[in-house]
Amino acid sequence: MFSQFAKVGRALFEEGLVSSHGGNLSIRQGDRLYITQRGCPLGTIGRTDVVETRLDRNTRSTPRASSELPVHRAIYLKTPARAIVHAHPSHAVALTFVESELVPNDIEGRITLPRVPIVGQEYLSGPGELCDEIADALCYSRVVLVKGHGSFAIAQLLEEAYYLTSILEQSCRILFLLRALR
């Protein structure tokens, strides 16, 4: 399991989908939740950078968990997800300021992510906020964007959630290019 965290974290960082210490990853196994720790550099995740806690309550290690832990818990409680990638893809985040939802123009984006909801339209939210709104949106979409903040992608495996995040950003780059051509 830790090799999955390291592989996906490195890929997210190398692709520029997170800053040096931004984003977080988690995996659910039964009533256990494994999540990257607060401030963890995803590009160089080590075994001690993953915190084990409970889905339904805090443990001694919970204070070390990512500040997005409440959002991850809400998502796992409301969706069939077994893995979550929270990233800060810059083109996607920029589009949250001018769109109410994203509709990709490219074929891969349209097939994979036909519509991506954007939550938090009323105000910019911080880490751990909008738990229910994010989880509710992920009941009908595999990816959601939080205005001015980042994306949450759900899947059965971390690699799949990373793929969805990568497709999201690629589709947003294409949207930017199309706007520049107009």
Describe this structure as you would to a colleague.
This protein is of the alpha+beta class and about 180 residues long. It has one domain: Class II aldolase/adducin N-terminal domain (L-fuculose-1-phosphate Aldolase, 3-Layer(aba) Sandwich). The chain is built from six helices and eight strands; from the N terminus they run H-E-E-E-H-E-H-E-H-E-H-E-E-H. The chain has helices at about 1-15, 70-80, 90-95, 105-110, 130-135, 160-180, and strands spanning about 25-30, 30-35, 50-55, 85, 100, 115-120, 145, 150-155. Strand 6 (about 115-120), helix 5 (about 130-135) and strand 7 form a beta-alpha-beta unit. Helix 1 runs parallel beside helix 6.
Strand content: 15-25%
Give me the count of strands: 8
The CATH topology label is L-fuculose-1-phosphate Aldolase
Architecture, according to CATH?
Answer: 3-Layer(aba) Sandwich
Helix share bin? 25-40%
Instruction: Tell me the structural class.
Output: alpha+beta
With helices defined by DSSP (H or I, 4 residues minimum), what is the helix count? Answer: 6
Provide the CATH top-level class. Answer: Alpha Beta
Spatially, the strands of the biggest sheet line up as 3-2-1-4-8-7-6-5
End-to-end CA span:
46 Å
- Tell me the series of helices and strands, N- to C-terminal: HEEEHEHEHEHEEH
The chain-level mean pLDDT equals 94
- How many independent structural domains? 1
Concise structural overview:
36% of the residues lie in helices and 20% in strands. The chain is of the alpha+beta class and 182 residues long.
